[in-house]
Structures are given as C-alpha cells and as structure tokens.
Amino acid sequence: VHTQAQSDFKKLYYQRVRWLGKWHLYADGRVKWLTLFLALVNVTNLGALLLVCAGWYESNLFFVQILGRILLEFIFLGLILGFAEKKSRIFHIPVMQLVYNFYLLFIIISTVLSKQYIWKERKIKTP
Fold first, then answer.
1. What domain range is 90 assigned to?
2. Which residue in 12, 18, 7, 9 sits closest to 114, CA to CA?
3. 17, 42, 60, 70: which one has the fewest Cβ atoms less than 10 Å from its Cβ?
4. How far is CA 105 from CA 6, 20, 27, in A?
C-alpha cells in the first residue's frame, strides 16, 4: 500500500487518527501488541521526563534511555530509508525525536476522545 504525503497538518492529523483508530481491528495479534508497545514506550518517555523535572528520576538515566531509543530508531529507520531510497532524510530523525513523543501522545488522546474524523472529505464516526 502506498500512501501519499498529506499536504497540511489538518489532513495529517485526521489520517493519523484514522490509522490509530483502526489498530484494534487488525487480525494479526502481533500488530496489536506492537502498537501497544510503541505507544507505551512513547508515553513512558514523557513520564520519565516529568519525573526528571520533579526530581524523582535521575537525569543521567533519562538521557541514556532517550539516547538508546534514538540510536535504535536511527538504525531501524535508516534501514527503511535506505530501502525507500530516501537515505538523505536520516538526519531528520534526531530532530523529530524532540517532538515525536508529544505528537504521538496528542494523536493517542485525540483518537480516544474523538467521535469522528474526516477522510476523503467525508465525516466518519468512530465506534
């Protein structure tokens, strides 16, 4: 399946809410577990950041946690970008890591709270 890049943030937002809203419908249990795992990792990173700010979690441990994640994603996404012949975009990864946890949490909350989303100029109600 090939998905076109969205032309603006609103379309990207609705696309991501639509995708995440369908995660529980997949027949393959591995996809469900992977989705939950990735959501948990991202929420855990934000939780760790809050704990560091409150002084309840070691900042050195937090930085090791974040750097480990960035390194793993850099390797994994680097392989994907190489396969897709978009290797020059690999240097966007560290920059995107700064905002991705917040972005994903926003999409997760939006998906849980939304009653509908827009897809192909139609309003679709969520279950």
1. 28-125
2. 18
3. 60
4. 20, 12, 24
Predicted structure pTM score: 0.76
Q: How far apart are CA 50 and CA 47, in angstroms?
A: 5
Domain count, the chain: 1
Beta bridge partners of 80: none
Tens digit of each residue's pLDDT (9 = 90 or more) over 91-105: 888 888 889 889 999
Please name which of 78, 82, 47 lies closest in space to residue 62, comparing C-alpha atoms.
47
Element of type H or E holding 123: strand 122-125
Distance between CA 32 and CA 125 in Å, rounded?
22
Phi, psi for residue 122 in degrees, rounded to 5: -120, 145
Asked whether residue 21 is domain-assigned, the answer is no
